[in-house]
Design goal:
alpha+beta, Actin, Chain A, domain 4, disordered C terminus
Length: 159
């Protein structure tokens, strides 16, 4: 997987960045030019962060590394992009949900607002090679684990 893999994550990254940007726009108080800059900065930060952690043949691999999370702590990628447009972490906490999890995986971008919220898919494309059943199975166990709060050991540890 040379530079081709990096090219392949553009749709997933732009979908995720657009989603966070929409949340900021909906909260109000941030200008369109700032939002455009935020979105570009976030896409760049994600691209850089995911560069060596993108595995289209094993989409669930590295999922935790690519997960964007706001949970009483600001996700560093969102924080970095917001800093570029002069938004403080304090301001971000006012504008964005206090509990947000965004999964950016090959072929799927999904999110959950709140610790017990339902998981909503923003983008999904069929996985080449017809490994769909396996992908769905691993995705469910990964997210069920988050939903239950890891109170019970997950079956996905025996990888």
């Amino acid at each position: 997987a040379g530079s081709g893999a990096a090219e392949d994550m553009r749709t997933e990254i732009s979908t995720a960045a657009a989603f966070v940007t929409r949340l900021l726009r909906a909260a109000g108080g941030v200008g369109e030019e700032q939002l455009r800059c935020f979105r570009e900065c976030l896409q760049e930060a994600m691209h850089e962060h995911y560069k060596h952690h993108w595995f289209p043949l094993v989409p669930s691999k590295g999922s935790g590394y690519r997960c964007i999370r706001i949970n009483h702590k600001m996700d560093p990628l969102i924080g970095k992009a917001a800093g570029m447009i002069g938004l403080s972490h304090e301001r971000l906490f006012q504008l964005l949900p206090s509990e947000l999890t965004l999964w950016v995986d090959p072929f799927e971008v999904s999110y959950r607002i709140g610790e017990d919220g339902s998981i909503c898919v923003l983008y999904e494309s069929p996985q080449p090679g017809g490994k769909v059943a396996k992908q769905l199975e691993s995705r469910t166990s990964c997210k069920e684990e988050w939903r239950i709060g890891r109170s019970s050991p997950s079956k996905s540890y025996n990888m």
